[in-house]
Amino acid sequence: MSAPMIKQFRHHMLGAEQGSAMLFSDFADNGPMWAGDGPREKRHLVRFTQPFLAPPMVHVAISMWDMDGETNQRADLKAEKITETGFALVFRTWGDSRVARIRADWMALGEIASEDDWQLY
Predict the structure, then answer these.
(1) Radius of gyration (C-alpha) of the chain in whole angstroms
(2) Of 42, 33, 28, which Cα lies nearest the Cα of 97?
(3) Which of 14, 52, 119, 121 sits most deeply, having the most CB atoms within 10 A of its CB?
């Protein structure tokens, strides 16, 4: 577990962007999240509409899940490889868990450029 961190913003231009992604729907075609067992992973690359000045804080949450009630319900959702331009939204499950569908929502918060910023060359 990582230690809590306060991110300080030096800038008056704070940007927020949010989105939603259907990560997979494996029930209909008996895909690996539904039919498989053991470690499984799905990745979805998110690109921001405009870059942040530095990697933003990213919050992710499961907004819809459709899981088999007869098996253990195991899930891990996280943002990985966060950069100024995007990140990887990653869902993992393991063991005998059977996951039909997952939709994840995300929000990025960080400094953005302003037309009032000075650029010295």
Answers:
(1) 18
(2) 33
(3) 52
**Is domain 14-111 given the CATH code 2.60.40.2080 in the classification?**
yes
Angle at Cα 95 formed by Cα 4 and Cα 46, nearest 5°?
50
List the chain domain ranges. Answer: 14-111
Q: Alpha helix (H) ranges present in 29-100?
A: 32-35
Closest by CA to 41, choosing from 80, 69, 70, is 80
pLDDT by residue (tens digit) across 32-62? Answer: 999 988 899 999 999 999 999 999 999 999 9
> Do the Cβ atoms of 77 and 119 come closer than 8 Å?
no
pLDDT (tens digit per residue) in 103-120: 999 999 999 987 776 666
Give residue 11's pLDDT band: very low, low, confident or very high (50, 70, 90).
low
Check: CB of residue 81 under 8 Å from CB of residue 89: no
